[in-house]
């Protein structure tokens, strides 16, 4: 009887402990959520809050919705940005984009010879990647940024580059999820690109790539 009583007490103690642990479960933001909500100005690039998705509500699981390949999501007009209506119709809040619903097809990480659909590149950024976008005929600048991509490819980093003529001429941009550094070709340096890559490569990586 004594042994039965001790056993019963032990079972009750285990149940109490289990309930306590459930009640104390950490329901705070994940590491990826902390990264995409981090607006620290000391981190390279301008911070753009994560897109709330088609329903205009954050944290409802449609912020990273996948669309069929070929679906085009436009850049928001100034009127849309001023009104705050960025979900109906859906549009990207920066040019080039830094977050939001995107193509179900991610873009490969390399120096692309043909322009990549921006919707594919956003998917690649969701995988922790960094992309350099350029609209310039300056071959020295193109060679420099491509060499940075190649060097990071050799280190097995998720970095790519693409021609992007839907932004201002003679402009370079480098993006990761919720971050954008955009500047004239005259301000391009190897260090500027590499600092951004070092800070943001896989900083936001919700799927653990």
* Structural class category: alpha/beta
Q: What best-fitting shape do the alpha-carbon axes yield?
A: globular
Encode the helix/strand succession as letters. Answer: HHEEHEHEHEEEH
Distance from N terminus to C terminus (CA atoms, Å) equals 56 Å
Integer count of domains: 1
Radius of gyration: 22 Å
Poorly predicted regions are 1-27
- Largest sheet data: 5 strands, mixed
Number of continuous helical runs: 6
What integer is the average pLDDT? 89
Tally of DSSP β-strands: 7
Report the sheet-strand fraction.
Answer: 5-15%
Q: Which range best describes the helical content: under 10%, 10-25%, 25-40%, 40-55%, 55-70% or over 70%?
A: 25-40%
Notes on the protein architecture:
The longest helix has 22 residues, at 2-23. The protein has one domain (31-200). Strands 1-7-6-4-5 form a five-stranded mixed sheet. Strands 2-3 form a two-stranded parallel ribbon. Helix 5 links the parallel strand 4 and strand 5 (159-163). It has six helices and seven strands, in the order ααββαβαβαβββα. The chain has helices at 2-23, 31-36, 78-83, 118-126, 139-154, 190-200; strands at 46-47, 66-67, 102-103, 130-135, 159-163, 171-176, 179-184. The protein has 209 residues and is α/β, with parallel strands linked by helices. 33% of the residues lie in helices and 14% in strands.
What is the topological layout?
Blueprint: H1 2-23, H2 31-36, E1 46-47, E2 66-67, H3 78-83, E3 102-103, H4 118-126, E4 130-135, H5 139-154, E5 159-163, E6 171-176, E7 179-184, H6 190-200
Parallel strand pairs: 2-3, 4-5
Antiparallel strand pairs: 1-7, 4-6, 6-7
């Amino acid at each position: 009887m004594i042994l039965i009583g001790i056993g019963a007490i032990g079972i009750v103690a285990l149940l109490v402990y289990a309930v306590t642990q459930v009640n104390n479960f950490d329901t705070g933001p994940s590491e990826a959520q902390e990264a995409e909500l981090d607006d620290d100005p000391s981190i390279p690039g301008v911070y753009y809050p994560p897109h709330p998705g088609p329903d205009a509500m954050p944290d409802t699981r449609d912020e990273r919705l996948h669309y069929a390949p070929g679906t085009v999501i436009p850049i928001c007009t100034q009127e849309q940005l001023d009104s705050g209506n960025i979900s109906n119709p859906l549009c990207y809040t920066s040019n080039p984009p830094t977050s939001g619903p995107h193509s179900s097809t991610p873009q490969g990480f390399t120096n692309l010879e043909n322009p990549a659909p921006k919707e594919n590149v956003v998917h690649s950024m969701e995988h922790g990647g960094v992309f350099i976008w350029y609209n310039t005929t300056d071959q020295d600048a193109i060679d420099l940024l491509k060499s940075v991509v190649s060097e990071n490819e050799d280190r097995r980093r998720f970095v790519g580059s693409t021609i992007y003529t839907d932004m201002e001429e003679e402009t370079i941009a480098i993006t990761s999820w919720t971050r954008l550094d955009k500047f004239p070709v005259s301000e391009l340096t190897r260090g500027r690109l590499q600092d951004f890559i070092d800070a943001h490569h896989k900083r936001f990586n919700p799927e653990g790539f």
